[in-house]
Amino acid sequence: MHDTTAMLIELGAIILVLGLLGRLAGRVGLSPIPLYLLAGLAFGQGGILPLSASEEFVSTGAEIGVVLLLLLLGLEYSASELVTNLKTQYPSGAVDFVLNAAPGAAMALLLGWGPVAAVALAGVTWISSSGVIAKVLGDLRRLGNRETPVVLGILVLEDLAMAVYLPILTTLLAGVSLAGGTVTLLISLGTVGGVLYVALRHGRVISRAVSSDNAEMLLLVVLGLTLLVAGIAQHLQVSAAVGAFLVGIALSGEVAEGASSLLTPLRDLFAAVFFVFFGLHTDPSAIPPVLLPALALASVTTLTKIATGYWAARRAGISAKGRWRAGGTLVARGEFSIVIAGLAVGVEPRIGPLATAYVLILVVLGPPAARWTEPVARRITARTGSGRGTGAVGAKGAAGTVGTAGATDASDTTDASGTTDATGVGDAFGTTDAAGVGDAFGITDAPGVAGAADADSADAAGAVHAGH
Hints:
mainly alpha, globular
């Protein structure tokens, strides 16, 4: 069979299977990422039906997928938002790094993989999946919740930290000398700092230069600019992914919105190809030997991410329920863990299988953790008596009872399953209007009931706090 014919058949089959798997994942309420990884395992080396004719094209498509993932992420934020998040949430980012990078580094050292692999595996366990978490927040109707800005702030700090972490990792993986590595790192950081400065000072100028009323022209200019900057960044040892992320940050306003709308389908296609490509290059027989370390890491880092979200939300003055929801939401790992592992497999091939198993576990566990962490924590604290209970143990307020995990009245926010509590009151922001009408999701309670969602917004009479 002609090479081009075979390639078209394989590509068509891959894309068709990805579409069917995506539909299946949507029906069962899961992220499609684990199914894409499994598809790659099935059709890769050691799989049931290895593919060869389309391998080079899939490899290029995977590189484009990483670039588009980071570009679209950068389009979600402006440079000023990143700077603001850095100023206000850096303690939470530091706690996130210490609690979640340390287990990965420790595991690599325990397995005897060396310090470079330790730095790589630390990144795998550190970074949450922005894509999976964004989808979960939308599915659970929590985009307006008071704890959601805390979650997004941590994700933004992680993404910004990638602009520093990836150049460091790339330098270490290249095995250059200390002097050479220092120079490369300084060039990388200087490039990142320069782009951020330009984005802050001249972002509007860049956006106007790129802007076009013609969708086709806008798509071509933004995509071409992104690939060009990504290639230059790769040459400067900054990483193509970071270059794309910085292009996204530099664009703002209507240009960013239009580009995001046009590029989202392309991102989804090539990101799916990326996950398949990673699976294609992971031998399924290499996964069982690292399954126990993957399970151990998943167990530990699930708890550390929950602790991170809880601490960050508590620092922001969120009620106990919101703290648990924030922690559970951060559990999922995904695209960035695979990107980091993909960079590091040349130094330690076993990182690939371990990262695949680890991501498969947590990308499946992530959505249920986001939904059920708060109810489970509430029940556990109620049974152990560590929280202040209702009735004889808790102090009963005018607006309701004090909750088990913190001071929340009977009209607390929408719970993890998206339903309201006994009074049916309370919006995602912890406020209700004077008539007790409607939350952020369009849910209305009985007329005339004015409840406060949590201790952060309730006064003794259950009225809405003026700050909200």
